[in-house]
Write a structure and sequence with these properties.
This protein is about 45% helix and about 20% strand. By secondary structure, it is an alpha/beta fold. The two termini are about 30 Å apart.
């Protein structure tokens, strides 16, 4: 999966990650452990939380893309070699670290898009589900195979998979450990789009560019509505939407967007 041509890269230094601002306001975060299929260990989870914080604190950030290094794997799961040495209390702490990192990712103000290139198993599937939506390569495979190791999912897999796919299908995948290919993931709503692997990054950047042209304030509000609303009943969710709709009229983005429409020009959002 190659970087699109003519995109400047601003790079931040981590041991297990690459963080690049590949266009103005569009960040690419790469899990960079290809020799172990980008498996998640304690260092990756800690650096992921740091990278998310860095991007979220950038007032110019508009979209975050997340992928894995190499052509074989997005993230093949948590690092089993590290997990094999953990005591029960250490295992709980490891799960809590992953839960916190993924929840922080989920709560970012800006949209987060997973570019799933290859295996997204266990912690990799959980990472993808913590993003706002998923673009998958045609060789992508999604699953939660933890039961084959004698453990449960630990980074939110049982909860997010059930919310995304429904109880029966989530239970089947969780207790059988089988993986879905890209087409099945698309049909069942786990992936939004499927592309040839060679096109995945450029398609992700194109979608991020389109998103970044819209009002950042309205996008942040819309993300709040979707995330908070899924845990509310319809009546209270609609009340929240009315409140934020009214609040949006106090923003400079509303003034610019509507005036641009009246003037028949493209809006210029700051």
């Amino acid at each position: 999966m190659n970087m699109p041509e003519q995109i400047p890269a601003i790079e931040a230094s981590f041991e297990t990650l690459l963080l690049n601002e590949i266009q103005c306001g569009i960040y690419l975060l790469t899990i960079n452990r290809p020799k172990v299929l980008n498996a998640l260990n304690t260092t990756v989870l800690s650096e992921l939380a740091q990278a998310v914080e860095q991007v979220d604190n950038d007032s110019n950030a508009r979209v975050l893309l997340i992928t894995g290094a190499g052509d074989k794997s997005f993230v093949a799961g948590a690092d089993i070699t590290e997990m094999n040495t953990l005591t029960p209390l250490e295992g709980k702490a490891f799960a809590e670290r992953g839960m916190a990192a993924f929840r922080r990712l989920e709560q970012m103000k800006i949209p987060v898009i997973a570019l799933v290139n290859g295996y997204a198993l266990g912690g990799g599937c959980e990472l993808a589900m913590s993003c706002d939506f998923v673009l998958a390569s045609d060789n992508a495979r999604f699953g939660q195979p933890e039961v084959s190791l004698g453990i449960t999912p630990g980074f939110g897999g049982s909860q997010r998979l059930t919310r995304l796919l429904g109880r029966a299908m989530a239970m089947e995948l969780l207790v059988s450990g089988r993986a879905m290919n890209a087409e099945e993931a698309l049909q069942r709503g786990l992936a939004n789009h499927v592309y040839p692997q060679s096109d995945l990054l450029s398609e992700g950047v194109a979608l991020a560019s389109r998103i970044s042209q819209n009002s950042p304030t309205a996008i942040q509000m819309t993300k709040q509505l979707v995330q908070r609303g899924q845990d509310l009943d319809l009546e209270n969710g609609c009340v929240m939407e009315s409140d934020l709709f009214g609040l949006s009229f106090a923003t400079p983005d509303r003034a610019e967007g509507m005036q641009a429409f009246i003037d028949n020009r493209k809006p210029s959002f700051v």
